[in-house]
Amino acid sequence: MITTIPEVKRKFDVEEIRNDFPILKRLVNGKPLVYLDNAATSQKPQAVIDALTQYYTFDNANIHRGLYFLSELATEQYETARLKVKELINAMSVSEIVFVRGATEAINLVASSLCRAKHFKDGDEILISYMEHHSNIVPWQLMCGRKKTNLKVIPINDAGELDMDAFGKMINEKTKLVSVVHISNSLGTVNPVKKIIEIAHSHGVPVLLDGAQAIPHYKIDVQELDADFYVFSGHKVFGPTGIGVLYGKTEFLEMMPPYQGGGDMIRTVTFEETTFDDIPRKFEAGTPNIAGGIGLGAAIDYLNQFDRNELIEHENFLLQYGTEQLSQIPGLRIIGNAKEKASVISFVIEGIHPYDIGTIIDTDGIAIRTGHHCTQPIMKRYNLPATARASFAFYNTREEIDKLVLGIHKVKKMFA
Q: pLDDT digits over 218-263, tens only?
């Protein structure tokens, strides 16, 4: 069986932590890897890799169905992972944790199921923000195409902060849902989500938070936030790809119809009628990503070794240091300067396309993201085709930022 890492807290030591992540030892183009694309996906500690290997090597079986040893073992591990997620975000009940493929599927599930539950009627409005990832735009557009509902967009200021005054004026009796990102993946802005929820709830409007970028960096308490829905992806929180979480308050999950149909989400099936299982099982049709769930549980165990405040403090240092160093480069402009930011720095350099920046520094083993970051409306808002983005995790170091700065100077020299 996979053992849970004990609750004894490890002292934060970035060099020791880096030893937990095998990929950080590899060479790229003959140079040590400098991985600065954590907003896209995080790297995996050996404990998560071992959990996946253990399951596929020794414990592989389908879950919820078999009465034999391996099936019961796999079921126990998978459901224990669900309990770990519940504790990670302080949900009220484990039944409020639905396993999905990722934040994208979670949002699609809510959009589809609320639509079928007739939560929306003609003329209703859904509020999102200008800084949303495409996964929190497109599902609502698809739903608005099926229903005669309208998508309204909360504006942002030049610093990349939500216009809260505008939000307060936009929400009204037609508003049936607010769906906003907790932390912007392209700007790093930390939105005042508790205030957003308070305003929305004062109008009787539920709120969905896209927490894909927040969950790796902050301790999330959905009860303290009073979020109605909270979604995130396992691969951004040091777990495997293909696994994610939809948290939903019981009252909403109970009233929402299933998202998909199939095995393992039913109570009875006849040719005349099907009855569905209780939450969360009614939303989990078919064989799930069992290894992914177990791997996510291992990632949570790994994080629980540390004082999260120490990890946050280190990431805040990286953000501050990176901002200071990059700001000193002539012609470089940082996009997104909110007062409250997570460890993401997007930037452009006058006269140099972001793709050229990313391609050239890759020759020195430096991995950053370039493009629109699945936030094309943000690019349009700033009149940009793309940005370069460096995003940090707690295993990154000051020295890696120094290498990024040197790499950018090399780019500027080539284009001089």
A: 999 999 999 999 999 999 999 999 999 999 999 999 999 999 999 9
pTM for this model (two decimals):
0.96
| Structural tokens at position 46 | 């050996």
368/344 Cα distance (integer angstroms)? 11
Task: Clarify whether residues 289 and 366 are in a common domain.
Answer: no
Residue 317 near residue 342, CB atoms below 8 Å: no
| Helix axes of 354-362 and 398-415: crossing angle, nearest 10 degrees | 120
Tell me which residue of 315, 371, 322, 359 sits closest to 29, measured CA to CA.
359
* Two structure tokens written together for 298: 């291992």
Query: Residue 164 is encoded by which pair of tokens?
Result: 């809260």
- Return the active site residues: 374
Cα 256 to the chain's mean position, in Å?
A: 23
Q: Which of 283, 303, 323 is the last residue of a domain?
A: 303
Say if CB 136 and CB 159 are below 8 A apart.
no
Is the distance from CB of 372 to CB of 364 less than 8 angstroms?
no
**Encoded tokens for 406:** 């040197």
Residue 88 to residue 297: CA distance in whole angstroms: 10
Distance (Å, rounded) from C-alpha 361 to C-alpha 206?
Answer: 44
Q: Rounded to the nearest 5°, which phi and psi values hold at 180?
A: -135, 155
For the stretch 24-29, contacts whose Cβ atoms lie closer than 8 Å and that sit 24 or more positions apart, written own/partner, are: 24/395, 27/365, 28/362, 28/365, 28/367, 29/362, 29/363, 29/364, 29/365
Contact 98, 149 (CB under 8 A): no
Task: Tell whether 314 and 244 lie within a shared domain.
Answer: no
Q: What is the pLDDT of residue 3?
A: 46
Q: Three-state DSSP class for 134? A: helix
Q: Are strands 175-181 and 125-129 parallel, antiparallel or unpaired?
A: parallel
Which whole-number Å values give the CA distances from 354 to 33, 35, 175, 185, 373, in the listed order?
Answer: 20, 17, 38, 17, 12
| Structural domain span for residue 322 | 14-39+307-415
Return all residues near 135 (Cβ < 8 A) that are at least 6 apart: 103, 104, 107, 210, 374
